[in-house]
Write a structure and sequence with these properties.
The protein is of the alpha/beta class. It has helices at residues 2-27, 52-68, 107-115, 125-130, 161-171, 186-193, 209-234, and strands at 30-38, 46-47, 50-51, 75-82, 96-104, 143-151, 174-182, 201-206.
């Protein structure tokens, strides 16, 4: 009887510990960042002695390295590509894919995918953004969700990117969408800027390879710090 009582008490104690642990974990606000990267033929254009896609990969690698050296609790990162040769056999407007699901921040798998990506097809940015609707967790989990789009040109497949992006925002709990242009022409920059507001986020232009690293690092650090502040306030 004594043994049964001790066993039962141990079971109850273990259950309570797990319940408290789950409760504490549920209060941690996750940051979910889906990267949407241009792997179209435009990203194969030369820029500063290399291709735009090469500098995109290097810029993300540098930003990830800086981020790895600082606390990044609760950060999940995923990757979507559009235009790359592995998405579809044809170089059409369906050449987009989920390359890496949202997961605990781990640079190596994402960088490996980018290393093996060959820019080839059309720029279908709007479709890639629209396909991200189901990438983020449901509203039941405390999280902040963001899209970071790194592009080399305007969309070739959709006349009105704004309409598509507005639909995505209305269907998800996205907090912001950032569009980072690689040496974006002034006309394209003004076009995307005209979307903000009503869209939350910002449009930024990387005029040099080093500025891409700075822009991505700045956005990631800003989101992590604001989330840590929010979690501290909740505690």
């Amino acid at each position: 009887m004594k043994h049964t009582f001790i066993t039962m008490f141990s079971f109850i104690a273990a259950f309570m510990f797990l319940a408290v642990s789950d409760l504490s974990a549920s209060r941690i606000e996750e940051i979910n960042i889906m990267l949407i990267v241009d792997a179209s033929s435009h990203s194969a254009e030369e820029w500063h002695d290399q291709t735009k896609f090469y500098h995109t990969r290097q810029g993300l690698s540098n930003a990830f390295q800086e981020l790895s050296n600082s606390p990044h609790w609760g950060l999940n990162v995923g990757l979507r590509l559009f235009g790359d040769s592995t998405a579809r056999k044809r170089r059409n407007c369906t050449a987009f894919r989920l390359a890496a699901k949202l997961n605990w921040f781990e640079p190596a798998p994402i960088l490996s995918i980018l290393e093996n990506t060959r820019p080839k097809g059309k720029n279908c940015l709007a479709w890639a953004i629209a396909s991200s609707i189901n990438d983020f967790p449901g509203s039941g989990r405390p999280s902040r969700n963001f899209l970071i789009c790194i592009i080399s040109s305007r969309d070739e497949c959709t006349k009105d990117e704004l309409l598509t992006i507005q639909h995505v925002v209305s269907q998800t709990n996205l907090e912001a969408i950032y569009i980072i242009g690689i040496d974006m022409p002034e006309t394209d920059y003004e076009y995307f800027k005209s979307m903000y507001p009503p869209l939350p986020g910002n449009v930024l232009n990387a005029e040099y390879p080093a500025s891409l690293t700075q822009i991505v690092t700045s956005i990631l650090n800003q989101k992590i710090q604001s989330s840590e502040t929010s979690n501290d306030s909740a505690e």
